[in-house]
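Re: the 273-residue chain
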Amino acid sequence: MADDNPNGYDLLVDMLRQWGLQELAPDVLRLLQDGHSQDQVSVLIQDTDAYRKRFSGNDLRRKAGLAALSPAEYLATEASYRRIMESAGLPVGFYDQPSDFTTWIGADVSPNEIQSRVNLAVDAAERLDDGTKQAFWDYYRVGNADLAAYFLDRERALPHLQTQARAVNVGGAGARDGYQFSRQEAERLASSTSVTDAQLRDTVSQAVDVGTGLGRVAGYYGDNYSVSDAANELFFSDTEAKRRRERLAAREQAQFAGAGGLGRSSLGTSQSY
């Protein structure tokens, strides 16, 4: 062997073991016996089919105009993904093999983004009351057992998933108050930037309460007002919806001044905007 280090073979095989490429040990031995140095061998084995398959995310990166990761960087990224899955309690065998991470590495998906996806899945699972379960199924045909896979689907964009997660929460909150939002309406409301996740449930409840109450008032006058109108004001500060609410509230107050029941209840709710 040309390598002056008598332990070169052992060191290279240990490196292969870390990479999951122990099957290349005979190739390493042959290259060393042919007179290649340890450093040369570590470069030459990167031309083997086994190496390219193991680090196939690098081929995707090159095609996308991204720099290839070194083996150490590649393995560290995989390890980060794996730790995130394990910390979230995802089952063994679910997104924990090198082939599971190829597309993410190839697309330069950061561990931080994967953490965000996992957080969405965990948060969604924790909200699985009957209304939320039904919204997931009605909107996206996702059963509660499929939630993690849905949010970790490598073909889905994170911003879109975030909107869908909020949409399901809108649908679930509406169902708890006896109102059924369509998928399109829930996604539209979920896109609002003025209502935080923490405010979502109460805001939906307020929209259902005000929209239902003033809807009855509007019907009494041959007018119309709906939960969507109330939601437009609460989620998007819709000025036309606000004017309609105020006009109906004023008519109700004038008609039922000093009375209890519907007038006092719906008007009191509308004043909390």
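DSSP finds 16 helices and no strands in the chain.
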